[in-house]
Amino acid sequence: MDLASTIKDVAKEAGVSIATVSMVINKKADHITMKTKKKVFDAIERLDYKPNLTARSLVSAKSFTVGLLVPDITNPFFAELAKAFEKELSREGYMTLLCSSFEESEREKQYLSELISRGVDGVVICSLTSMETQILDALKQAKIPYLILDNRYALEEFSVHVDDYKGGVLAASELLENGHKTTAFIGSKNPYDNIYNRLQGFRNEIERAGGEVLTFETELTRNGGEAVAEKLFSSEATAAFCSNDLIAVGLYDAADKHNLALPEELSVIGFDDISFSDIVKPRLTTIKQPVGLLAEKAVQHLLLMKKDPEYHFYKELIPVSLVKRESVTKPARD
Ligand code: RIB
């Protein structure tokens, strides 16, 4: 690797002018042919050329950074989402500033104002715990494009999210097909739009078939699953639809302690399809959120918003699917 590679070296290697290289790097090359662009990219790769960010920022008035605000980075769903997001963004020459709020609205405010003062080029918000949304006004005033990803998409804001209602319907159909009538939904203590819609889809489908849904609320964590287990196990429910996979894993822990056989004595369905779902025993049946696609869409929209302040898309709905594994079976009792 040549540490001293410059834009001049890249131009020479690619056989083009310095101005052409500069236009390609700064994404102002709509009029340049693909063949020439490829020559430039190949030369950049061969020389491992790193554009001078400070200079790029001065020329383009961009910081080439984007904030990603998540509730909990220890939840594998958000870790996997952050990884996919970072990969997408870095392809476009941007860096991700990852902020984990632990679902505390004070932290969310602090992080957002910090991101504003760092002059980020955009913010993707997966954590908005407080129902007061004035917190978003500061982003508007600073003219920083932002969008909501995942949980608070009922707001009148640009958002990218999965079809949570359909996820609930798919989970219900799977339980109904297996003969379950009395079911449980384990939701969140916080009033999130996505969890609400998962419940709506699930409840409508179960009740349409003459079944019943008992509801429980807890934290969206493994501990949350354990905390709710005792009440759930002593209820009439023969199956539980958990609003995320971590809650399901918590139920597995508790079932083990209570000597409750899964899925024979309780069928379980999760939501997310984190990598653990395929590792736990019984392997967890769940509703898959395509995190790669969520990240790709969020990045695409955000960068278009940055490029053109008039750009608008409103809401992007991403499909979900049922991943059948081993945690659903016929009920042992009626
Ligand atoms: O696991 C985290 C869950 O909460 C996911 O289902 C995601 O959609 C979120 O809001």
TrEMBL record:
GO MF terms here are:
DNA-binding transcription factor activity; transcription cis-regulatory region binding
Gene3D superfamilies xrefs: 3.40.50.2300, lambda repressor-like DNA-binding domains
Q: Where is the signal peptide?
A: none
Tell me the SUPFAM superfamilies matching this sequence: lambda repressor-like DNA-binding domains, Periplasmic binding protein-like I
The organism's taxonomic lineage, starting at the top: Bacteria, Bacillati, Bacillota, Bacilli, Bacillales
Annotated PANTHER family: HTH-TYPE TRANSCRIPTIONAL REPRESSOR PURR-RELATED (PTHR30146:SF148), LACI-RELATED TRANSCRIPTIONAL REPRESSOR (PTHR30146)
InterPro entries named in the record: HTH_LacI, LacI/GalR-like_sensor, Lambda_DNA-bd_dom_sf, Peripla_BP_I
Q: Which UniProt keywords apply?
A: DNA-binding, Repressor, Transcription, Transcription regulation
Q: What protein name applies here?
A: HTH lacI-type domain-containing protein
Superkingdom field: Bacteria
The record places domain HTH lacI-type at: 5-60
